[in-house]
TrEMBL record:
Gene: LOC111122301
Protein name as it appears in the record: Uncharacterized protein LOC111122301 isoform X2
Any one Pfam family match given in the protein's UniProt record, by short name: VWA
Region (Disordered): 242-289, 323-365
Database matches in InterPro entries: VWF_A, vWFA_dom_sf
Residue ranges occupied by any VWFA domain in the UniProt entry: 18-203
Bias (Polar residues) ranges: 247-256, 323-344
Stretches with biased composition (Low complexity): 271-289
Length: 525
């Protein structure tokens, strides 16, 4: 294969390669960076071994409204220091995000202004997001940044953008398309976050050498085995290897070629829960909606979209979809076992007996291991604050306490939704999930807390006591919600959702950063 048949412009032998990764950390997008954390050290060391001269930079960002409660952006300059990169990424937490659009226009500006790109290098920006940028007249965009102007500067500097659009926001396609088209880069779609590490490795190898890229594709194919590629990986590899087409829809049903075993650890994780299909998938789901992947630039042609190069292992056999119950830690009901009919009876939020289920404390589960992370979660929304927020008209002072409660939490919805409540011990700190419930009630009025913490009057009062105790310790309380089509059979133990009888029984003890979030003596007042 010709040396320029895939990437066109290669860095000179022995030259440098600068790759900047931009991660959106708002809402559920923060899980993408969580996927990378556990593999980052191995990934960097392998890339440095295979690509001498590679320098990596990372920028993580929330949105303008996150600057006070979390952070607006954090970044680390291009470096080859593995420890510095791992420490930086390891310390990044998720942010809230306040509206649908995110501050991508600011990140594009920072990418060309605050990073020292080598004069003679292969320059790549991997932009990972799921929404649109803010327009120049957005009230918090005080510098009136226009993403199109920033994109023109990036293109003039010779920086190629790999625009990775997560999830299925069709309204944002134009933005990601434009970034790829203007800079001669690539537009990729990512639906399963567990594939992000393979995306990163493949992009780096593709920018360096055809052989490295094709060998890595063969390695991933061997790792997937007879199950074949997940759709994300299938389309990504097809797009990065094909040069004539702006659209990649591979439909081959042949199995991957046999490849010698490789020593690398599997990077992608299996068994994520899909809210679209309502089922679990062992790496790939035939129920996922079809999508398109685009590529831009000048390349040599390939005659057929469905005929991969003979140098590349053939792709993908559709996988069967396993039922959602495969995530349960318990055996399926048999014989005359009673099948619960309501979400509460099924114990999805820890109200069933621990003798019958192997429950996992939710606050101990990292986001990368959370089985419901691929639901379409909203951003975390600040619900209770120990100090008076800036938008004070939307808040009400709590009775007998120096704390504030949001007047309205979420807009009304008739659909049943799953809610999670978390506690933040210090500004910009990690969110510790403590409570979950499923309901269809509206949380758009002042008494939203009565609906969120439903049940008996005693249960409600105990929850209110819990809220006040964490506020007294200068903690913040956040809430998020997600739509779902099927009640999952996954069982977690939420510290604030333990079964509460008429007795004054403390809940499960949870202490984080020397602050007691649960387990105190809750006498009624």
């Amino acid at each position: 294969m010709d040396a320029v048949s895939i990437s066109g412009h290669r860095m000179p032998p022995g030259g440098t390669m600068d790759i900047l990764f931009s991660f959106d950390t708002t809402g559920s997008m923060s899980y993408i960076l969580d996927e990378v954390k556990g593999r980052l050290s191995d990934m960097i060391q392998r890339l440095q071994s295979d690509i001498p001269g590679i320098r990596l930079g990372v920028i993580a960002h929330g949105d303008y409204c996150d600057e006070q409660e979390f952070y607006l952006e954090k970044h680390i300059e291009f470096t080859q220091n593995v420890v510095d990169l791992c420490n930086f990424v390891g310390d990044i937490d998720g942010t809230g995000g306040g509206d649908e659009d995110e501050c991508y226009e600011l990140i594009l500006r920072k990418a060309h202004q605050e990073f020292t790109w080598a004069p003679v290098s292969n320059k790549v920006l991997v932009m990972i997001g799921d929404a649109n940028p803010h327009p120049p007249d957005y009230k918090l965009n005080v510098d009136n940044i226009d993403w199109r102007e920033e994109l023109a500067v990036i293109a003039k500097m010779g920086i190629k953008i790999y625009a990775v659009q997560a999830l299925n926001n069709d309204g944002a396609v134009e933005f990601y398309n434009s970034m790829a088209e203007v800079t001669g880069g690539h537009y990729l779609r990512l639906e399963n976050f567990s594939n992000i590490c393979d995306f990163i490795m493949a992009i780096c190898y593709r920018e360096r050498d055809d052989g490295l890229f094709l060998n890595y594709e063969a390695e991933v194919a061997a790792r997937q085995g007879t199950s074949g590629f997940h759709k994300d990986l299938n389309n990504m590899f097809a797009t990065l290897r094909r040069e004539d087409s702006k659209q990649s829809n591979i439909s081959s049903t042949s199995k991957p070629d046999q490849v010698p075993p490789v020593s690398a650890k599997p990077i992608g994780r299996r068994g994520s829960y899909s809210s679209d299909s309502g089922a679990a998938s062992s790496g790939c789901s035939s129920a996922e909606p079809s999508g398109t992947v685009h590529r831009y630039g000048s390349f040599s042609s390939i005659s057929s979209a469905s005929s991969p190069s003979p140098h590349i292992p053939a792709v993908v056999t559709p996988l069967s979809v396993t039922p959602a119950s495969s995530f349960s830690n318990t055996k399926p009901a048999t014989g005359n076992s009673h099948r619960p009919n309501s979400p509460k009876q099924r114990g999805i939020y820890g109200r069933t007996s621990n003798k019958k289920r192997n429950t996992i404390p939710r606050e101990k589960v990292p986001e990368t291991k959370f089985k419901l992370r691929n639901l379409k979660w909203s951003s975390w929304k600040l619900a209770y604050s120990p100090e008076k927020p800036d938008d004070s008209r939307n808040w009400r002072k709590m009775r007998l306490l120096n704390g504030y409660k949001r007047k309205s939490l979420f807009s009304s919805s008739k659909r049943q939704k799953m809610y999670e409540v978390s506690v933040q011990t210090h500004p910009r700190g990690k969110l510790h999930v403590m409570y979950q419930t499923v309901m269809s009630s509206n949380l758009d009025s002042l008494n939203w807390c009565r609906r969120l913490f439903g049940g008996s009057y005693m249960r409600y009062r105990i929850h209110q006591r819990q809220i006040k105790r964490v506020i007294q310790q200068s903690c913040r309380v956040f809430v998020r919600r997600a739509d779902f089509k099927k009640i999952p059979t996954i069982t977690y133990s939420y510290a604030w959702s333990r079964s509460i009888t008429g007795k004054q029984t403390p809940e499960r003890t949870v202490v984080k950063n020397n602050k007691t979030l649960s387990g105190m003596d809750y006498t009624l007042y």
